[in-house]
Specification:
With 118 residues, the protein is mainly α. The protein is 75% helix and 0% strand.
Length: 118
């Protein structure tokens, strides 16, 4: 329940702080990278007991900020804008899925049996 309340609060603050005409602060490539990492965080965190999810999410969020060299406020701002920008959101997720498929192809090729080896 606490996790849901915090998520709703962050969303509301970010949503209300965004005015019509606001622009994205992160480049489209950086935003895509952040969204991809946040998606992976969400998958990872959901595997942990609910009692630990808030602190684990916070730790990952700090890592995302550090790895990508962006301000947390900029991430929250852009994610709030992205909530209502369905075309960009669709494009970002399509790119992320395409990259994931390419990674699977590369990994599959590298694990393929080499001729003459058994």
């Amino acid at each position: 329940m606490k996790n849901n309340s915090i998520s709703v609060l962050i969303f509301l603050v970010a949503f209300l702080s965004c005015r019509k005409g606001d622009t994205y602060r992160l480049s489209s490539d950086k935003l895509k990278d952040v969204v991809r990492d946040m998606y992976l965080v969400d998958l990872n965190v959901s595997a942990h007991p609910k009692a630990y999810r808030d602190s684990i999410t916070e730790t990952y969020m700090q890592q995302i900020v550090r790895i990508h060299g962006v301000a947390r406020e900029d991430i929250e701002h852009d994610l709030a804008l992205l909530q209502s920008d369905f075309d960009l959101l669709d494009t970002i997720y399509a790119d992320i899925l395409k990259e994931g498929k390419e990674m699977v192809k590369i990994k599959t090729k590298s694990h393929a049996k080499k001729p003459g080896l058994r």
